[in-house]
Sequence to fold (330 residues):
Amino acid sequence: MKILTIGTSIITTHFCEAVLKSKHSTINAVYSRDLKKAESFARPYNALSYDNLEHALNDINIDTVYVASVNNLHFKHAKQAIEANKNVILEKPSTHDAKEFNYLLEMAKNHKVIILEAITTMFLPNHAWIKENIYRLGIIKSVYAAYHQYSSKYEAYLNHEDPNIFTLTHSGGCLVDLNVYNLHFILSLFDTPKKAKYYPVLGYNGIDISGVAILEYDSFIAIASASKSHHGDQTIVIEGELGTLRVSSAANTLRHVTISTKDATFSSDIIDTQNVLEYEVLVMEALLKEPYNDSIHNLNNHSLKVIDIMSKIRKDANIYFEGEKNETLF
Fold:
């Protein structure tokens, strides 16, 4: 991959550092509306810097665009990249709703390029291990996934500085920033629930600073809990009639997985790097080398399912991003 990055946040730094570990991909260019910021970010990677996105997308040395801009700009920037015939790696939350993501998928098909959501959970080796071994638990009876992490932006929010991730204007909030990982994990194992509902804790400006999503299945209830306003559990526990699965980290890293049954204990410590985006980059390199295939189709269908459920439970909880009530997002 010859990559143009859009966005200069910490997640983009982690992504670029993961690309540096690869022998098959390079960071070729960086875009920011602030040229000095682009130049500073691009310097360690010997990359070009742009403050004009059209010019950046016209760079013939770019074949893939990593979109990690502010949430409310994801759809716009992905659309522009596809129109320029570039593959797109779209950071979570990929779009506001299924309608937008379907639109991008159809565009990508017409332009013969590929779009993928950058959700680390789906590319981790321990995720594959869990899918292969969850049968050991028997009939599932309980699922709990927690990602509670005090945000570095929370004090600024409390001071009414309105950082992007804590505003409806920029499509922020805890559900789309942290609980999205829990939903991806749960839905990848158990498919679409019969019912789903979100119970948010709202801040002064109507943004969800924490919240719990309840997913109802035939034999169990799945709880997806996340918070950006306090330190707490980062764990997953799945209980079945025959045993218990425990993960000693949040769903975005899936470190150290153990399955305990009456007769045996099984564990996986496959994760061998601090930067789990390295796995994401490796898988995406392989996928983007091939024409559109079943693996890409399955990943996109899964993303579409998560986006659809997440947007519906958010709106059902009366959390609307700017423009959504009037359907003016695109």
